[in-house]
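Researcher: Before we compare anything, I want clean individual predictions. No alignment, no superposition, just each chain on its own. First chain goes here; please echo the sequence and then give the structure tokens.
Model: Echoing the first chain and its structure:
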Amino acid sequence: MLVSGKERWPKVALAESNTRFESNGVMLAGRLMEAPGAGKDTPLVVYAHGSEGSGWIDRARDPYQMVGRGVSVFVYDKRGTGLSEGEYTQNFPRLADDLVAASREAKRLAQGRYGRFGLMGVSQGGWIAPLAQARAKAEFLGIGYGLVLDITEQDAAQVVKELRDRGYGDDVIAKARTMTDITARLVKSGYKDGLDDLSGVQQRFGKEPWFALIKGGYTGVFLGMPVDALRKNGIPQFDKLDIDWSLDPLQVLSQVTVPQLWALAEDDRQAPPAVTVERLTALRSQGQAISVYLFPQADHGMRSYDQASDGTRKPTIITPGFYDLMADWAKGGVHGTYGRAYRK
């Protein structure tokens, strides 16, 4: 690699092993990436990645950042993405099954050349890794910019942050909360509970300037749809994801007994961290081994950003210290400072 037109960086001599493995009848593609000189003391992690519809093999940055810091990584393409078979889904229990299968394959390939074994989850992977931890026999969890909220709570938090960032006050926020309460009922009931209420808020608030700004995870889609079309057809692009709306991440985490690290982006618009921090702190007070780091001036994906006067953001770099923190955690402990991060 030629850096700044001047300096050449040599390629790190990684050991890579491609494989295919089965999870509930679906063949998935994976790759073991071993740190140089990997041996019985080298940590090994398997990644649960985010909601993107693209594969991670040869594409994702995280595995290379970890291997470059002395951590072996097993990466795989989710079902329905990249080189893997099956249908793309956002059914978290099914994705957790795949993560368990990936963990078995990682250990098989790296047998005799790893020590600590853990799961890393980023974004949506923050829901999936805790679901898989016990069955995967992971000794630790490392979560980047994840949530301890269910999907409807995330949507509501996103909507509030969108409006707060645009300068709207408590009166508009209260109206928006009414809407996210309605859309939560809709998704959890299969579009049966809340259709008339949705029509009512569309008519009541549809012409107010903040109404069109609402996106959230899904509420903006509902607000822009005629109720008759929703009643007749649902929302096919959501339905085909086979989402399990009953999942309670706080209940799942309460059953996790291994040490956890949560690295959160303080200014995250997609996964606002405030409630997550409160819930992790409460779990820690009950005796769970949970470390929480917040990275200031970082948005989702741990990206630093430049913000324009209209509130739009342009991503710049990955916030310094994030990968150092995750790698140190995999190796068995965190120490010193990690960029501008602070502990909660």
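Researcher: Okay. Second chain, same rules.
Model: Second chain and its structure:
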Amino acid sequence: MNTWRFPEGDIMKAQQLPVLIATLTSVAVLAACSGGTKAGSEGGSGGSKTLTLASVDQGSVEDVVKAFEKANPGVKVRYTTSGADQYQQQIRTQLSSGTAPDVMSVWPGNGNPAATHVLAEPGYLRDLSDQPWAAKMPDAIKSVAQYDGKTYNAIFGQNGIGAVYNEQAMTKAGLTPPETWTDLLAFCRAAKAKGTPAFALGNQDNWVTQLVLYALVATTVYGDDRDFDQKMQAGQATFAKSPWTTALDKYLTMEKTGCFQKNPLGTNYEASQQLAATGRTLGIVQGNWVIALLKGKNPKGTFTLKALPATDTPSETLVPAAAGAGYGVNAKAKNEELALKFVNFVMSPEGMNLFVGKQGGLPSLPDTGFKADPSLAELSTFIGSDRTVPFMDQLWPDAKVQQTMLSGLQEIFSGQSTPKRLLDEMDADYRAGS
């Protein structure tokens, strides 16, 4: 997602993942809610004690910055946070014009305009292969943190996409998380009958459109064919002639069944959080990064991530899980030394555990001493039993495929396109980018 992958992203791409993500990120792939600006000091960014930072990790980067400043007396961090869509547009412009910050959010792989391959290929990112944590990253994460054999992305967490339930709202409704596709539709009908839709859906932000689809694709496409991505790369498979059609049909079936609140296209990401956090929906299909944001809106609430079923055989269910968005260093950073110090802090046990703890994620490196939040128990189980697949966009040839998918999904929800047209367009972009 690159957010997936999305903000927090996407798949938003993460995402995975889980690991997630993040993103899809960010997903994300990777993804965050509406943006803001924070100033850690006055004065220019070129001072030896001032670091500039652009992040999509709203709700979590703030505490990491505070901890970094505390560990480095006299250092100030001037940072901005913004949603994934806005960020991805701005960071490329800033990099090409020489106005980008010292450190910036970067998604894994190749799925969106701010992904590792996309930014490293033209030389925008500093090679981080010489940093102490680079060699310690697991192969699955290292593969999407690298370009041309060199590491450019400090990926600190793993993310997953699933159904995040508001436990208090579920108890009030007298319902439990469904484990099969048939039960999912029945759950949606029951929730609607009680006047509380099952899931909030913020499709006004186009990166959000992919998350339900990715959660369904994980099982429908990869359940029977873990080598689907390799077949796509070899020209032996297509979106339009694969179970992607099944997953997209199920997504639209969920919409027709009333699984989402009214007018998803008129609801943005932050508004969807508010619906789920306050119990006006029973949950939200998102990456695990949303849990911290939901808790911020409802500190007394309890939220749990579960797999979104796509078949009637629970043992077949897979979840998208992949590396989440990390941080890259501007190849032309005005304060390279401090930039490296920051990414190394992010990759330290203290920084990593603080980040993933705030986001409700899982650390990318082993042996950090991290104790996962109970809300992620099922995600941890799926990761540990190899029942995950990467955020789909992280393995696509370029960012165009994802952008076509995101805008196309919005057009489908508004009645301006069809599933067949969308998948055909994605195939054309995939072939052009290969």
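Researcher: What stands out in the second chain?
Model: Residues 399-413 form the longest helix (15 residues). Additionally, The CA atoms of residues 56 and 81 lie 5 Å apart.
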